[in-house]
From TrEMBL:
The keyword Transferase applies. GO terms for biological process: sulfation. GO terms for cellular component: cytoplasm. Keywords: Cytoplasm, Transferase. It catalyses: 4-ethylphenol + 3'-phosphoadenylyl sulfate = 4-ethylphenyl sulfate + adenosine 3',5'-bisphosphate + H(+). InterPro entries: P-loop_NTPase, Sulfotransferase_dom. Residues 38-199 form the Sulfotransferase domain. This is Sulfotransferase. It is an enzyme of class 2 (transferase). It is found in: Cytoplasm. Residues 250-269 are annotated as: Disordered. It comes from Capra hircus. Its EC number is 2.8.2.-. One of its GO terms (molecular function) is aryl sulfotransferase activity.
Length: 269
């Protein structure tokens, strides 16, 4: 497996009126033949909302807290990314073929593009919503770093596109709302990024809907997952599949830090 990095910044491709990364849009056709299993668990978020973090937490739970097992492969192999496609790398659908049950899956797709089999099979889902301001800032940094995205342009114009739903995966507002509405009719555990991140001295637990295994303390799981994301860990490989990072791109995509054009400590309106 050898990643062929695309630095051409191809324009977004629209599917049902929703802009997507060109390669991901091309993956939707084969994804229609994907068959969900009743014991699958889907992790869904709008981009830059803690997907990898929660994927690591859930894999840690599935592996009963064994950190060595969680380092068995990059996270994109342990938690297949449904719509993923990049030159020289197995697609999400291809990775799924070799993933044993019970499977953890992830997606950023809005409901209009979600494979119907996931709803028909009543697959259990975890949705994580994050503050829109932090999402916008982190997404801007990621756009700059991951050159499979269209050119983000300056921060001000990117923010306008974000608010208008003209960035890849469309409207943040619609995404978080429609998944909230789905949680009233389907087995969706709707979580907030800020609640998971909140430090606490009291023992609390991350719910594991329908899992016949012991969950781990919410204070411990994020710490363990963050350990897995340290430099040198195989789990970091997923971000580099999409990125041709340069020194000027920075490494703040996970923090929601403001672009350098913004006053220090400021947040976009």
């Amino acid at each position: 497996m050898e990643l062929i990095q695309d630095t051409s910044r191809p324009p977004a491709k629209y599917v049902k009126g929703i802009p997507l990364i060109k390669y991901f849009a091309e993956a939707l056709g084969p994804l229609q033949s994907f068959e969900a299993w009743p014991d699958d668990l889907l992790i869904s978020t709008y981009p830059k909302s803690g997907t990898t973090w929660v994927s690591e937490i859930m894999d840690l739970i599935y592996q009963e807290g064994d950190l060595e097992k969680c380092q068995r492969a990059p996270v994109f192999m342990r938690v297949p990314f449904l719509e993923f496609k990049a030159p020289g790398v197995p697609t999400g659908v291809e990775v799924l073929k070799d993933t044993p049950a019970p499977r953890l899956l992830k997606t950023h797709l809005p409901l209009a593009l979600l494979p119907k089999t996931l709803l028909d099979q009543k697959v259990k889902m975890i949705y994580i919503a994050r503050n829109a301001k932090d999402v916008a800032v982190s997404y801007y940094h990621f756009y700059r770093m991951a050159k499979v995205h269209p050119d983000p342009g300056p921060w001000d114009s990117f923010l306008e596109k974000f608010m208008a739903g003209e960035v890849c995966y469309g409207s943040w507002y619609q995404h978080v709302r429609e998944w909230w509405e789905l949680s009233h009719t389907h087995p969706v555990l709707y979580l907030f990024y800020e609640d998971i991140k909140e430090p606490t001295d009291q023992p609390s637990w991350i719910p594991c809907p329908g899992l016949k295994r012991r969950s781990v303390p919410s204070a411990a799981a994020p710490c363990a997952a963050l350990y897995l994301l340290m430099p040198g860990s195989a789990t970091r490989a997923d971000i580099h599949l999409l990125c041709t990072a340069s020194a000027s791109s920075g490494t703040t995509v996970m923090k929601g830090d403001c672009p350098s054009s913004q006053p220090k400590g400021a947040r976009p309106p």
